[in-house]
Amino acid sequence: MTTTPAFAPEPTVVVDRVSKWFGQKVAVSDLSCSFGQGLTGLLGPNGAGKTTLLRVIAGLLRPSDGSINLLGSNPRQDPSVYRSVGLVPEEDAVYGFLTARQFVRYATRLSGAGAENVDDAIHSVDLDDAADRPISGFSKGMRQRAKVAATLVTDPDVLLLDEPLNGTDPIQRAKLITTFRALAEERTVIVSSHVLAEVERMADRVLAVVDGKLAAAGDVAAIRHAMSDIPYQVRVESEAPRRIAAPLMASDEVTSVSVSGSVLRIETTDLGSLGAAVPRVARDVDVRVTGFEPEDESLESVFRYLVRRR
Amino acid sequence: MRGTLAIIRVTLRQLLGGKRLIVLGLLGLLPAIVIWLATANRSAELAFQDYHEIAIVILFLIVLPLTALVLGSAALGDERRDGTLSFLLVRPLRRSAITGAKLLAAWIAAAGVTVAAGTAASAAVSIRTSDWSTLVPTIVGTALASACYAATFMVLGHLTSRAVLIGLVYVFIWESGISFAAPSLANVSLFRIGLTAYTGLLPEATRFLSEPLGSLTPGVGGALAKTLGIGLVAVLTAASLLKRRDTT
Q: Do A58 and B91 touch (CB under 8 A)?
C-alpha cells in the first residue's frame, strides 16, 4: 500500500479510485485513501462530498467507479461485515415513536449483539434521564446522541460518524469528543465535519475534501501548514486609503494593493502581520482606519485554494 | 431470526401508530354498518344475497385495497422517507430477511384491519340469518388478498414516493374499472385472488359474484399458491432493489 499521508499503514478501510456521480453532478471524483486504527477527521465544507464518501464506504451508495474494501469485504455484497461496522448518519435516522432505550435495544437486536451494553451506551452519551422518553420529543442534539448510542452499543471495529456533533451543546460536544478519542485507541474511527476547530480537537489525522476531491491529507499540523501560504484578501476602510496604501506596499507581507473610493483591498499571505501593520501605518501617517475585515476567508475558500494548488 | 422479529415488531408500531389505525379502523367498519342497515327486515336468503352484492363488494373493492395500499406502501416507504432505511441496511442481515420481515409486518397489519372488517361484516349478516357459513371464507379471502396487495404495494412503496397515488389508480381505474369491462383481464387483479378463495370455500356464493370473478375459477388452493408466489416475488424484488439501488 502506498505510504503517503492519504493512506494508513495498516488499513481497515480502503477507498480505491472511487468516483460517485448523481446524474450530471459529480459528488466524489477519483478519490483514493485509506483508514486504519485511530481517529481520522474528514474535513471539508458543506457539499464537499464527505457524506457521499462515508455512505459509499458504508455500502449505502454504489460507487460509480472504483472500489471499497471494508474490513476485507465489499459491504454491498457481504452484509455480514456490518457486524463490525457502525454508522451514525447525518440525517435524523431515528424512530420517533421509540424511546431512546428501545431504539438502542433495537440496534442490538438487528446487529445480533447482546443487550448487556444498552445502559452503558446510553450513559456514554448522557441520555440516562431521557432514556425512557420517546425520541420524537428530543432536541436535535439528543437525537444525535441517541444515534451515537445506537452505534456504540454494537461495539463496532469501524465507526463512521457523519457530522456527529451537529446540534450538540459545548459540554456534550466535549464529552462526545472524549468518547470518540477513547474508542479510536483500538478502533478505526472516521468523523466528518465542516468545522476545522472541531476536527482539530478530535483527530490526529485529517483528510480535507472539497468538490469531491482530496485537497490535503496528513496530521493537523500538516494541514495547518498547507493553509499557511494561502493569499488572503483584506478590506480596509479609511478616510484616506491612498495614504495608507503607499507605505503598506513596501511591507513584505503585502503582495498587492488596490484602492476604490474609501476602500483599500490588500492581498497578503500573512494575515497576522498585516493585522499589526495596518494600525501602525495608520498611526504613522495620521489617518483613521474605520474598518478592517478579511474577505473570502471561509473554510470553503481555503479548501478550494488547496485543491487548485494540487 | 432475532433481527427479523425485531423488524416485524417495530414495523407494526410504525404502521399502526398515530391516526392511521383509527382512520383505517373506521373504514373497516363500513361493510358491517352498511350490511347491518341493508338487511334489516330482509329474509335470510335475501340477506345472504345482499351480503355478497354489497358487503363483499365494499370489503374487497374498497376497504381491503385501500388498507393494504396504505400499509403496504408504508412498510419500506416510511423508512425511506424518514431516513431510517440506512439504520436497517447497515446491519448484518440479508436483504431478503429485511424485506421478508417488512412484508410479514405489512401483511399482519393489513390483515388485522381487513380480517376484522370482514369478520364484523360477516357477523352482522350471520346474526340476521343465523347462518355463519360466510365467516371462515371471508377471513381466508381477506387474509389472502391482503397479502397480495401488501406485497405488491411494499415494492411500489420502495420504488416511488407516489406509491399511494399510483396504487389508487391501479385499484380504482384498473381493478374496479377496466378489469370489470374485460373479464379476461381478471387474472391481473389482486382482490380477485381473495374472491376465488372465498368462493372456493363457499361455492353457493359464486352465483352472486360471477361478475367480479370474471374468467377466474374458484378455488382456495390456487389462490394460496398465487399469494405465496406474489409474496416470494415481492420479497426477492424488494431485496434486489435494496441491494442495487442507492440509499440516499
A: no
The answer to whether B86 faces chain A, any CB pair under 8 Å, is yes
Contact residues, chain B, for A106 at CB < 8 Å: 6, 10
> Hunting for cell 350490511 — which residue is that?
B35
Q: Tell me the pTM.
A: 0.82
- HSE toward the beta carbon, residue A225, CA cutoff 13 A: 6
In this predicted structure, the answer to whether residue A307 has a pLDDT above a threshold of 60 is: no
Q: Which of A88, A48, A11 is nearest to A216 (CA)?
A: A48
Residues near B184 by beta carbon (within 8 Å), at least 6 away in sequence? B214, B215
Q: Which of B133, B160, B155 is nearest to B44 (CA)?
A: B133
Distance CA B180, CA B102 (A): 32
- Find, among B168, B227, B216, the residue nearest to B192 by Cα: B216
Helix H or strand E encompassing B199: helix B191-201
- Cα separation, B182 vs A182, whole angstroms: 69
Which residues of B are less than 8 Å from A150 in CB distance? 87
Q: What is the pLDDT of residue B184?
A: 74
Asked if residue A1 has pLDDT above 50, the reply is no
Q: pLDDT higher for B214 or A83?
A: A83
Q: How far is CA A51 from the centre of its chain?
A: 10
* Confidence grade of residue A93 (pLDDT, cut at 50, 70, 90): confident
The interface predicted TM-score (ipTM) is 0.87
Task: Read off the DSSP letter of residue B176.
Answer: I
Q: Do A93 and B87 touch (CB under 8 A)?
A: yes
What are the DSSP calls for chain A, one per residue? ---STTS-SS-SEEEEEEEEEETTEEEEEEEEEEE-SEEEEEE--TTSSHHHHHHHHTTSS--SEEEEEETTB-TTT-GGGGGGEEEE-SS----TTSBHHHHHHHHHHHHT--GGGHHHHHHHTT-GGGTTSBGGG--HHHHHHHHHHHHHTT--SEEEEESTTTT--HHHHHHHHHHHHHHTTTSEEEEEES-HHHHHHH-SEEEEEETTEEEEEEEHHHHHHHHHTPPEEEEEEESSHHHHHHHHHTSTTEEEEEEETTEEEEEES-HHHHHHHHHHHHHHHT--EEEEEEES-SHHHHHHHHHHH-
Q: What phi and psi values does residue A94 have, to the nearest 5 degrees?
A: -130, 160
* C-alpha span between A269 and B55 (Å, rounded): 82
The residue whose grid cell reads 421478508 is B100
For residues A51 and A162, the answer to whether their CB atoms sit within 8 Å is yes
| For B83, nearest residue in chain A (alpha carbons) | A93
